[in-house]
Write a structure and sequence with these properties.
The chain is mainly alpha-helical and 292 residues long. Helix 2 packs across helix 4, helix 2 packs antiparallel against helix 5 and helix 4 runs antiparallel to helix 5. Strands 1-2 form a two-stranded antiparallel ribbon.
Length: 292
């Protein structure tokens, strides 16, 4: 009787914490997680390869975006299910580290979940399935260590083949061939011996009234900005030139967020805080000038 009472109290405590939450048994929760993984699998499976189909994304303001890049899709999609969101974060982390493989990552996870569903239906415990996946991962890593080939970073032809195999799955073949050489030459331009590669040294600039086929690599600095204020001087002599790899504009947050205010005073405070963030950076630049 005492054990039943404690269990009932624990369940009531859970319901009090979040009375609107859905309570499901472990078997139902497992199937919900598998279905979430399969849902992402069904969305991205048609993206894979050069013959993958484009997806149309419609933003909140009605703006359209056509892409079949898995990383872009996972960033733009509003994923509510916790398991699906976790899979999306894992896949996008793959793109941050290696630059490719987002769609493949989701498809592998989706296939593993589909196979796991078969064994769960036969009554196999999920812990044994996880142990089997861990053992398979070890065997795969051993195999990859045996077949991998070390290639010098300076081998331009090999780097072009690697970049081409990735870009041809995302762009038109003619445009992919053009961008491939640009990407490889840009990376080799900023690569320094015995130092990690800093991709922030490569900037992508979108030129208005130009076609994608006119893209080219400039091995230097592109000054495409005029005066920021009509009162700025048109010509200067004996002046300081600052090359700054940081933005002085308002930045969007990395996560989806919103600011709510109920009156004009709160709105003004929010704008002042946003302005102060930029003013502090500008002040740091002015301090460098006064130090000389």
């Amino acid at each position: 009787l005492g054990r039943a009472t404690r269990r009932a109290a624990a369940m009531s405590a859970v319901e009090i914490v979040n009375p609107k939450a859905d309570l499901v048994r472990h078997a139902d929760a497992t199937m919900m997680n598998i279905n979430a993984a399969r849902g992402l699998y069904d969305v991205l499976k048609t993206n894979l390869g050069p013959k993958g189909t484009l997806k149309m994304l419609v933003g909140g303001a009605g703006d359209l975006k056509l892409t079949k890049d898995g990383n872009t899709l996972l960033h733009e999609m509003m994923i509510q299910h916790p398991t699906a969101a976790l899979i999306a974060r894992i896949a996008t982390a793959q793109d941050d580290v290696a630059g490719d493989g987002t769609t493949s990552n989701v498809l592998i996870i989706g296939d593993l979940m589909k196979q796991a569903e078969r064994y769960l239906a036969d009554g196999l415990h999920p812990r044994l399935i996880c142990e089997g996946i861990q053992a398979a991962k070890g065997r795969v890593l051993e195999f990859l260590d045996k077949v991998k080939t070390d290639v010098p970073v300076g081998d331009r032809e090999f780097l072009i083949k690697v970049a081409s195999s990735s870009l041809r799955t995302k762009l038109h073949p003619e445009l992919a061939d053009l961008v491939t050489e640009i990407v490889v030459d840009a990376v080799r331009c900023v690569k320094r011996p015995d130092e990690p590669l800093d991709l922030h040294m490569v900037e992508i600039m979108a030129m208005q009234h130009r076609h994608a086929a006119e893209s080219r690599l400039v091995k230097g600095l592109v000054m495409d900005h005029g005066g920021r204020h009509p009162d700025m001087k048109k010509a200067l002599s004996n002046c300081f030139v600052l090359t700054c790899n940081a933005t002085l504009e308002y930045e969007k947050s990395e996560v989806n967020s919103a600011f709510m205010y109920s009156n004009a005073e709160q709105r003004e405070k929010m704008l002042a805080a946003e302005r102060k963030w930029v003013d502090d950076r500008v002040q740091l630049i002015l301090n460098v000038h006064t130090a000389f």
